[in-house]
Sequence to fold (696 residues):
Amino acid sequence: MPSPPLPRTTATPDAPLVGLIANPVSARDIRRIVANASNLQLADRVNIVLRALATLAATGVTRVLMMPDRAGIRAMLSRHLQREHNLQHAFPQVEFLDLEPTSTVDDTFLAARLLREAGAAAIIVLGGDGTHRAVVRELIAGADSSTAIPIAGLSTGTNNAFPELRESSVVGLAVGLYATGRLSAEQALAPNKLLDVSIQSGDGIRRDIALVDAAISTDRYIGARALWKPEGLHSVFLTFAEPHAIGLSSIGGLLAPIARDAPGGLAVRLAADPARRQFGLLAPIAPGMAREIGIEQFEPMPAGRPFAVDLDAGVVALDGERELTFKSGERVTVTLRENAFRTVDIARCMRVAATAGLFRLCS
Amino acid sequence: MPDNNPFPLPKDELLDAYRRMRTIREFEERLHVDFARGDIPGFVHLYAGEEAAAVGIMKHLWDGDHIASTHRGHGHCIAKGVDVVAMMKEIYGKKGGACEGKGGSMHIADLSKGMMGANGILGAGAPLVCGAALAAKYRAKQKGGPSDVAISFVGDGASNQGTFLESLNLAAVWNLPAIFVVENNGYAESTARDYGTAVDSYVDRAAGFGLPGITVDGTDFFAVYEAAGEVIRRAREGGGPSLLECKMVRFHGHFEGDAQTYRAKGELEDIRANRDCLQRFTQAILGAKAVSEAELQAIDRDVLGLIERAVAEAKAAPPPDAADLTTDVYVRY
Fold:
C-alpha cells in the first residue's frame, strides 16, 4: 500500500533559505579521452539534486534558490518538480537566481554572490574541485571566515579531492538541520584551509586560490585546462593530502599524509631531471593514471609562510586545472591559509543529531 | 624554439593558424556584404566567429584524412586547404568553381584535400564519415602504421538527426577512426539548443553510444587544438571514435538575411566584443611576443588581396552552360 503523501511545504519570506549551485559541465574535460574518466550524466545530476531537495524538505527547509544554467539541469529539474508537484510530494519551493547563464565559470561566481546577497544559510555545491574553488573564491571575497556562508559539497567532478563522496539525501538532511537552526554553527561547521597564490610583476599582482592543490608546471599555456601529464610537473603545494585521494594531492598523500583538519600543508618539489631526483613515487595523478613521479624533496608548509616558486616561466594549475600562466620576471608565491572558510561537516552533523535525538519523532 | 613562444606550436605554425583563421573571417565578412548586394545566388551560411574550431582541429590533419562538413562549411573548407578562389567561384555559381559552379555554397567539395563536401542535408555527413573511416581503417591494416582519420562536423541542431545517432553507434561498433565534432553555437537555426535537445550534454550522448566525449571552449584555439590532438591521436592509433563538443558562437544569422529576432538584446555585440576567437588568439600570441604585429599585418594584407582576387575572378568567370548539365553527375566505375 503506498504511503500517504507528505504535506506540501509552504514558503514564507523569512523561512530558512538554502542555495544550490549545480555545475552542469563538470566532468566533461579531456580526461575522458586520455584517462577513461567517468561522466556523470545530466539526468543523474538532476536526480542528485532531487534527492537533496526531498530531504531538505523533510527537515523543514521550504525555500531553495538555485543557479540557472543553459545546459539542461534547470529544464530537466523543472520537469521533474512539476511531476513531484502533481504527485503531491513534499519539496521546497525552488526558484532560480536572476542571472543570464553564460555557461562559463562566471555563472558560478555570480550565483555565489547572489546567494550571499539573498542571505542563504548554506550552499550545496555539485561539482568537482574546480566548481568548489569558484564558489569559495566568491564567498570569501570581502568576508572573513566567521561570516562566509558555509558550503556542503557533492562530488560530481573528475578528481574530487575536495568534495567528499556523499549521498545527497544525507547532505540534504545535514544542511537542513543547520539551516533551520536545529544545529548550531559550532556543531555543524568545520574550518578549512586554502592556498593563496599570487603572481607579482611590474604591472601589479594577480591573485587566486586553491582548495586542495596548486601545481606548478613547465607548460606555458592554458590549453584544455586539465593537468594530467606528469612530465612538466615542477612542484605541488597541498592544503591536505590523503592516501586514498585521486589527483595531484595523491602525491602528498602517498609521501606524507596530512588530514583535512590538521594544521599546515605540504610542499613537494618534483624532479623530471634524474640527477636531482631522490626517488620515484607511483601516484594516481588522474583517474586511471598511476604514474611514476620523480621526487626531489618535500617539506611541511606552515600557515602564513609564503613559498616562492623557483621556476622562470610556466603555468599554475589550481585544483587540477591550468589557470594562470607566468613568465620570466614574474614572482609566484604560494601561502597556506588556515580557517579560511567553513563547510558543513556532514558526518558530524548526523552524529550530533543522532546523539541529541533530533530525528526521533513523537509517536 | 625561441624562448618567448610558450605555445605548443612553433612560430611558423602559429602564423599558419592565424592565416587560416583570418582567411575564413575575411572570406565570410566579404560574403556577408556581397550577398546583401544581391551578387550571390542561393543561400549562404557564414562561419565567422567559429574559426578556432575548424582550424584548431584541422591543424592536426593531413590530406589523406577526410572531413564531412555541414551547410555552414566555408570555414571547414578553408581550414582543410581547399583553394579559396575555387570556393568563391563555386559560391558565385561559376565555371572553375570547386564543383564547376553547379553546387554552390552548400556543396563545396575537394576530394584531393580530403574534403568530402559541405552538405545541405542536416546530419548527412556523419554516415559518410563512417564510410571514410572504415576505408581508412582498412588501408591502415594493409599498410601498417597510424590510420588516416575521418571527421564529421555537425551542428547542435543536426545532432538530433537519426543519421548522426546511427553513425555514433556504427562507429563505436566498428571501432572506427572517426571523430564527431559537435559545433555547438547555441542555436538550431533559430531554436535555442536548451529548448530543442532533450539530452543536453553531448558528452552524455556519446556515453549513451559507448564512446568517450569531451567538451571544450570552441572560442579558445589552444583548448581546441590540445583536445583535438588527443582525440585524433587516439583514433589514428586504434583507440576508436570520440565525440568533441566545441562550444562556440556565430557572428551572423543562421543564413544571410536572417533577422535574428531570437537573440537576446545586445547578444551579438557582446559575443563580438568578448567571445571573438580570432581576437583571443591574436591577443595570446602577440601578448606572449611569440609573433610580431608586423608579421600579422603582412598576413592581413595577403589575405585581403586573396579575397579581393577571388571575388574579382569569380565575378569575371562564366557560368556553366547547357553542355555542363550532365557532366560530373554520374561516375563510371
